[in-house]
Write a structure and sequence with these properties.
By secondary structure, this protein is of the alpha+beta class. The chain contains 19 helices and 33 strands.
């Protein structure tokens, strides 16, 4: 049946010049016997999945030849949306804008069919209308319940869903107003009728401790606890490895292997070793926990890991892919413990080329667990006490530094893009209250592990590609030209440009990043550039990795927390004995890997969104104590409704155009600016501004600023470059910096004079309004 599906699609894409009835299709394709008897069932399945489209005259055609597009809806809380096509055949096939009256009754993330009204040209977007909803995405919705006498309704937490869910009252479940609930949709919305649903779980009351994070977890369908049978299977795992398990493995327990991770890491899945060889080359050993030995195919552990797809690192907890007995125990490369590993030994020359490699199963014993902080203090800060305490490993750490620089230089020479965004970490107290925001920047220690893992991933991917075995690759395709045109428009504002937007090479983008490094516009250009690129994903085909400028790439290095890595290990293990696997097994892998890759990509995106939402929630909660205080910031976004301002600690908020009362401001998209009609004052990307924090909303994840002085001219940061040095940003300065400002993390006074002033002004305004009404 699968073969017949492919034959029909191939025929309709290349041979059929017009839509055909099923009978005409059978005649033109000259189908007979079994294929003819299966035809109608296959057509029904293809039509149900929107691989082919049925016209009102009962004829069938493929969407791309009927001015139709199949894709996923990305809705806005403003009522409109964009459909991201599943298949992009030419650079001009951009996302499709769907106005509010063209949304049908589709909801965020639904799979839909769109009729395209306006075709795109270079740099121009398309628009259209949704004509069919193929698959609903939001079968369960998390929100806040409100009760009335005869019915209730749930307002979704995710504002992009756009409409309340009607809850008929049945007299059985009495849920109080304000409760956080999970709703199962029983009837989908149609025209002006809202969706209907039934409450299947009450999470708690709005305002309860931890309720918002629990809501995020439920909204993204993230599992919290392991089923009993999975937990029991994990309990059956051994505490230590036996001599029998070591048989057939290379014994590397004599090597001084080390791990380098964050201080709070508990699942350690990668160890490294570097040795300088007599010929001047380096031997790099990368040792990855052999999780596939303990998690066998089709067991309950494997099925649970497959469903989860990834570990999820939320602001206050970790939702692991595997039970902790495995991830923190026998599968974690804990120092001083014998562990089974999948190993890659790579000989690397002074140009960063892998001239020889071996992939093999091993047994190792990590000699030392390092943290990123300790390695940084040894190699960068040259801490004498730490250096003295680690003399036996100092030579290896210095070799790691040299090899890291060699590998990075090689990546840069071939044109890889190297974004360096600081990571925001919110520190919580024991009650879950945010007490500090930490901006973590990548140091040499993180770069060492990153470069070593990258070269190991590339080596394994190339090895498996050459074996021609079905495999899971990590791919990153070339960007759409339309997004590159928009990026180029932004670059023109800062004196930069891309020579080609149709065939952009990663090296051209990295050249821009090198030029803007340290400048005020660095953050915004880097952010827009990143958003202009496609998302990396898992794929059963090798499509290359644009961002890394790599022909071959996979994920081999984290099988504890990523299911595709576990699959990579499993397939790699099958090649060790004979160098190949059976034809039957290849066919089975070829059939199952595309679905595994797709599901893993979807779970990865859900996890990443949940992680961002929990950080955003706690960031907003943290900023609530500083309402009324003054900050310095940089404009990192400009829209028709206001300007986004980023503080030095990474927190972002909005200055609404309605609060800019000194003039009427017009949005000039090409210049990424708001320009005053009378004053001609310009607020542009990269400008330094002084703002007052006026409002925070944890429910909406919003932070509102107002400009400290609308009448003062804000000198553009791009022109404020001190001579003879790197440009300086007007960030949030620390206490004692000479201007009376302070860092957000240092500020402690919740009842500042500024905050009182804001409250007092609000009270006076209310009083005046009452007097006017009288």
């Amino acid at each position: 049946m699968m073969v017949l599906k492919e034959k029909i699609l191939e025929f309709m894409r290349t041979e059929a010049y017009k839509p055909l009835t099923s009978e005409e299709l059978a005649e033109h394709m000259e189908l007979k016997g079994t294929e003819l008897s299966e035809l109608w069932k296959v057509i029904e399945e293809l039509e149900s999945n929107a691989d082919i489209i049925k016209t009102r005259y009962d004829k069938y055609g493929v969407p791309e030849r009927m001015n139709l597009v199949v894709g996923k809806l990305s809705a806005s809380n403003k009522g409109y949306g964009f459909v991201i096509p599943e298949k992009v055949r030419t650079p001009n096939e951009t996302d499709i804008f769907i106005p509010p009256d063209g949304m049908m009754s589709a909801m965020h993330h639904d799979r839909v069919v769109v009729r395209v009204h306006t075709q795109s040209g270079q740099g121009k977007s398309r628009d259209g209308e949704i004509i069919r909803i193929v698959k609903r995405a939001n079968t369960r919705i998390v929100g806040t319940y409100e009760a009335s006498r005869n019915f209730g309704f749930v307002t979704p937490d995710d504002l992009r869903l756009g409409q309340d869910i009607f809850i008929p009252k049945d007299g059985k479940n009495i849920v109080p107003s304000g409760a956080k609930v999970v709703v199962e949709v029983t009837k989908w919305p149609e025209k002006k009728r809202s969706a209907e649903g039934k409450i299947i779980e009450v999470l708690g009351n709005t305002g309860d401790s931890g309720i918002e994070i629990l809501s995020i977890i439920k909204r993204h369908n993230l599992p919290i606890d392991f089923p009993a049978e999975v937990a029991q299977a994990a309990e059956n795992a051994p505490d230590a490895i036996s001599e029998e398990e070591i048989s057939g493995r290379r014994d590397l327990r004599h090597l001084p292997i080390v791990t380098i991770d964050g201080e709070d890491a508990k699942d350690l899945d990668d160890g490294v070793y570097v040795e300088r060889l007599k010929n001047g080359n380096y031997l790099l050993g990368v040792y990855i926990a052999d999780v596939s030995y303990y998690v066998r195919e089709n067991t309950v552990l494997d099925k649970e890991a497959s469903e989860r797809g990834t570990s999820v690192y939320l602001v206050d907890r970790v939702l692991p892919m595997l039970p902790r007995r495995l991830s923190n125990g026998i599968c974690s490369l804990n120092a001083g413990e014998d562990r089974l590993a999948m190993s890659a030994h790579m000989e690397i020359d002074h140009k960063g080329q892998v001239v020889k490699y071996e992939l093999f199963p091993s047994v190792i014993r990590v000699q030392k667990r390092f943290s990123y902080t300790v390695v940084r203090k040894i190699l960068v800060e040259h801490d004498e006490e730490l250096i003295h305490g680690h003399q036996e490993l100092l030579g290896q750490l210095e070799n790691m530094e040299r090899l890291c620089r060699i590998l990075r230089e090689r990546r840069m020479r071939r044109g890889a893009i190297d974004f360096d965004f600081p990571e925001l970490k919110v520190k919580l107290d024991e009650t879950g209250k945010p007490i500090e925001i930490i901006k973590r920047v990548r140091s040499l220690a993180e770069s060492i592990i990153e470069e070593f893992m990258l070269v190991a991933n590339e080596t394994v991917a190339e090895h498996m590609h050459k074996l021609k075995v079905p495999f899971v690759f990590r791919v990153h395709e070339e960007p759409d030209s339309e997004k590159m045109v928009k990026l180029n428009n932004l670059l023109h504002n800062f004196g930069q440009s891309l020579s080609k937007v149709d065939e952009v090479q990663p090296a051209a983008l990295q050249k821009i990043l090198n030029y803007i490094s340290g400048r005020p516009e660095e953050r915004i250009i880097s952010t827009v550039m990143l958003r202009s690129l496609k998302q990396a994903r898992y794929e059963a085909q090798n499509l290359g990795h644009f961002g890394l400028a790599a022909t071959y790439y996979t994920h081999f290095t984290s099988p504890i927390r990523r299911y595709p890595d576990l699959i990579v290990h499993r397939i790699l293990r099958e090649t060790f004995n004979s160098g190949d696997i059976s034809t039957k097994r290849k066919a089975k892998l070829a059939a199952m890997l595309p679905e595994i890759a797709l599901h893993s990509s979807e779970r990865e995106r859900a996890a990443a969104e949940a992680e961002r939402e929990t950080v955003s929630l706690k960031t907003v909660e943290y900023m609530a104590q500083f309402v009324g205080e003054h900050f310095d910031g940089i404009i990192n976004g400009v829209t028709a409704f206001g300007i986004f301002v980023e503080l030095d600690n990474g927190v972002e908020g909005l200055v609404r155009v309605s609060s800019m009362e000194d003039d009427y401001y017009q949005y000039v998209e090409e210049q990424y600016s708001l320009i005053g009609e009378r004053s001609h004052k310009i607020y542009r990307l990269g400008d330094a501004v002084k703002v007052i924090l006026t409002r925070v909303s944890p429910e909406e994840r919003n932070i509102d600023f107002v400009l400290e002085s609308n009448s003062a001219w804000i000198e553009r940061s791009i022109n404020r470059r001190p001579s003879g040095g790197r440009p300086q940003r007007n960030g949030v300065k620390s206490e004692g910096a000479g201007n009376g400002r302070r860092t957000v993390s240092a500020a402690k006074n919740k009842n500042s004079k500024a905050k009182k002033a804001v409250v007092s002004r609000a009270k006076l305004k209310t009083k005046r309004n009452k007097q006017k009404k009288k």
